[in-house]
Design goal:
The structure holds two protein chains of two kinds. Chain A is built from six helices and nine strands; from the N terminus they run E-E-E-H-E-E-H-E-H-H-H-E-H-E-E. In chain A, a hairpin with a 2-residue loop joins strand 1 and strand 2. A five-stranded parallel β-sheet of chain A has the order 6-7-8-3-9, sandwiched between helices. Chain A is of the alpha/beta class. In chain A, about 45% of the residues are buried. Chain B has one domain. Chain B has nine helices and no strands. In chain B, helix 3 packs parallel to helix 7. The longest helix of chain B has 30 residues. The two termini of chain B are about 30 Å apart. The chains are: A alpha/beta, B mainly alpha. At the A-B interface, helix 3 of A face helix 1 and helix 5 of B.
């Protein structure tokens, strides 16, 4: 469903990747791996359409992502920055995301209580710990009906229970025919994942 | 509609959490305009002829003051990425953001202007014209500012650059706004400049959000 063809990106004199191809089908997960600065995050941003590659294209159902009407609804981006307003409460943040993506009001509540943050819903995000902020951003992703999860180091800042929970949710997502593209530093034991190495030549 | 409400609610809440950022451009507007009568001569005719220009210039600069932070936070905390990949056209979201900015930065100026106009002995017709031109002109300034803010959002220490980019584009609004106010004070018909200001607003509202969206995409890249 997701197809990348001939992706090339330079940052200054630095070639992050050249003529990169990969495909991702239903129920599949691809781990993007490599040392720091290898371009993992940049590759994910290219897949999200946030960064333009110098050459090549990303296709969703054989359509370039920029032209696809379905892609914005099919995509959930869990980036390094949580994308939350620190002055607003968890509830206000997630309610806005639901409105932005046209979901039912309160669609996030189940995910939030599973992540153990239901009691903090009216707390400003600035007062949460880094891990709790990541959990809030996760609640946004988990409550969206997106088919494709693009996640940048999703296990960072999560405690053991949070990591186990996320692995479980990832398995459920893939079993339901979802797709996942993850930038990771460690491999996932619980998931049979293909790996894509960046910057391995150096 | 739900999106517009959610967007405005969010931006207004954020603005009022940072109360100082809302009030300081207003303070600037009030202080600058009340300093002129003190520094210049207190004669009626001098103040009356200077008033429209001074009030309009101070309003323009107060709007510029509030522009710097328009997208900075959204880009730094990653919210803008979520807006950019979402299912709605980014230009539409930019239009809503400009509306939110105007409600916080422009509308209070319109409300404050008649009070300050008193210090310039402006006649009733000129006060009404001042409010009307500000009401039509300041949204255009918000829209112009959103393009400048979008282009400079990725640059640190960009406030000087932002003013340099946006100020020349604001001049037509400033000229028609202050001129119409002055003409109204002399009892002349000002429907011409008013319609021109309205035309500028219509043009700005339909085209500039597209430019702002393109600027944001460049800043995010």
């Amino acid at each position: 469903m997701l197809l990348a063809r001939g992706l090339t990106l330079w940052r200054g004199d630095n070639c992050l990747f050249e003529d990169l191809d990969f495909a991702l089908g239903e129920g599949q997960v691809l781990l993007v791996r490599g040392p720091n600065g290898a371009g993992k995050t940049t590759l994910l941003r290219v897949v999200c359409g946030l960064t333009r590659p110098e050459a090549g294209s990303v296709l969703w159902k054989d359509q370039p992502i920029a032209d696809s009407d379905e892609y914005p609804l099919a995509l959930a981006w869990h980036g390094h920055q949580p994308g939350l307003k620190s002055d607003l409460s968890i509830r206000q943040n997630l309610e806005f995301s639901a409105a932005l993506r046209g979901q039912a009001a309160g669609a996030w509540q189940a995910a939030l209580s599973e992540l153990g943050l239901a009691a903090l819903a009216d707390m400003p995000v600035r007062q949460l710990s880094a891990g709790q902020q990541r959990r809030t951003a996760l609640a946004r992703l988990l409550s969206s009906p997106a088919r494709l999860w693009v996640m940048d180091e999703p296990f960072t800042n999560l405690d053991a229970a949070g990591q186990a929970y996320l692995q479980g949710r990832l398995q459920g997502h893939l079993a339901a025919g979802g797709l996942a593209l993850l930038a990771m530093h460690q491999s996932l034991e619980a998931l049979p994942a293909r790996e894509l190495w960046l910057g391995a030549a150096d | 509609m739900r999106l517009l409400r959610a967007m405005l609610l969010r931006d207004l809440r954020l603005a009022f959490r940072r109360w100082g950022d809302v009030v300081s451009p207003l303070m600037f507007f009030a202080i600058v305009t009340s300093l002129f009568p003190l520094a210049l001569s207190p004669r009626h005719d001098v103040l009356q002829s200077l008033g429209p220009g001074v009030l309009w210039i101070a309003a323009l600069l107060a709007m510029l003051l509030s522009l710097n932070a328009l997208f900075r936070q959204d880009i730094e905390d990653g919210s803008m990425e979520q807006l950019a990949i979402g299912p709605h056209p980014l230009a539409l979201l930019m239009l809503y953001k400009s509306l939110g900015h105007w409600l916080v930065a422009g509308l209070p100026l319109v409300a404050l202007a008649p009070l300050l106009a008193v210090t310039y002995y402006l006649p009733g017709d000129a006060v009404a014209a001042l409010c009307l031109t500000l009401l039509i002109g300041t949204p255009t300034l918000s829209l112009l500012g959103s393009v400048g803010a979008a282009l400079t959002a990725g640059i640190r220490q960009s406030s000087g650059l932002l003013a340099l980019l946006v100020l020349p584009l604001c001049l037509p609004v400033l000229m028609f706004g202050s001129r119409a106010t002055a003409l109204a004070g002399q009892g002349e018909d000002i429907s011409g400049p008013l319609l021109l200001l309205a035309a500028m607003l219509a043009l700005a509202a339909s085209l500039l959000p597209l430019a702002a969206a393109a600027g944001i995409r460049i800043s995010l890249d």
